[in-house]
Design brief:
Shape: globular
Number of helices: 13
Number of strands: 16
Largest sheet: 7 strands, parallel
Distance between the termini: 56 Å
Strand content: 15-25%
Structural class: alpha/beta
Radius of gyration: 20 Å
Strand order of the largest sheet: 3-2-1-4-5-6-15
Order of helices and strands: EHEHEHEHEHEHEHEEEEHEHHEEHEHHE
Mean pLDDT: 91
Amino acid sequence: MSTPSPAHAARRVVVYGASGYTGRLVCEFLRQFRIPFVAAGRDKAKVDESMRTHVPGIETADFEVVQVEHTVEALTSLFEDADVVLNTVGPFSDLGPEVVQACLAAGAHYTDTTGEQDWLITCDEQYGAKFADAGLLLAPGIAQMYTTGEIAAQLCLETPGLDTLDIAVFWGGSPTIASTRTILVNAATSAAHYLEQNEYVPFDPGQGLVPLVVPGQHELAQSLPWGGTSHPVWFRRDPRVANVKAQGGVFNAALMHGVPQIVAQALEATKDMTPEDRDAALTATARQVMNVMPPRENPRVNKSLDSVHASGPLGRAHCVIHGNSNYQQTGLLQAFAAHWLIQQPPKRIGFASGCQAFGHHELLGILRSFGLVSKPVLTVQD
């Protein structure tokens, strides 16, 4: 590990939750951008071990490992010299408020990798204006499952007159431990929404699996609302867009068929528990589904596909983006956000998506330059 400096001033990027699967990928790409960073977490030994054993080339990185309590006061002290905080500690609805409040107090931009729609709504409605007043970016949900699909949507919306987005995202492999827990916690504590005429409408919780046509294959894929995703929140105030619905899942049909049963059983078993007991029980259930850290992604296995149909009264557009290694896409997008923010202001302050903050062509370009997505296939019918 590199020798710690007397202060964090030279390290203007903090990765909070650096020991997790996504956190260490963020650190890996920060190293490739040659960005000094602080790898922070609640257990210094765990973070240090994760850096040394799971981040390729870490011996060439300029970084420091810091242990910090998960309180607004402790996090504010850590973030005081930071320009940007990249947060990977979830579930974000439970653990995100302290980090956001600390960023606001310290004057640091905030990004995270959330897939929790209720947390997106909270950020938008409770913290967005405060970050805008401070000249800061609040960008939750910068991750492959949301941002790559948003890039496809933005490419479609370059055609005027389209107001409806039908979004699908699929990937190969399986979720991490943290992602599985988040799915269960989110299902137990909040509804999933789509956007209809710029208003949130809840999905039918009993809807179950929905078969979708996936470009490039004959077999139908099974999908779920996946918490509603970030897209309805990001596009709610986009004057071009009135309706947004997103579905997603993994290509593994057997795994997808098991998800609704696992969620239903977990909800039934925990419905009368206190919040503390419920969270513990859901964590135990998540570990039964996925109790080990997934292996490093293999692009022949861990494929991603984002498909967006955009429509309007008299027009249609369809964009497909094929990619691989969705967690690496997330790590790269987070590192690029930091790379941007330590050099210049974002394109939008306050609550914003990755594309709104940095530009969809810019994000597409960085993903393509690292070989993680192919050239989008865009079809426009006037």
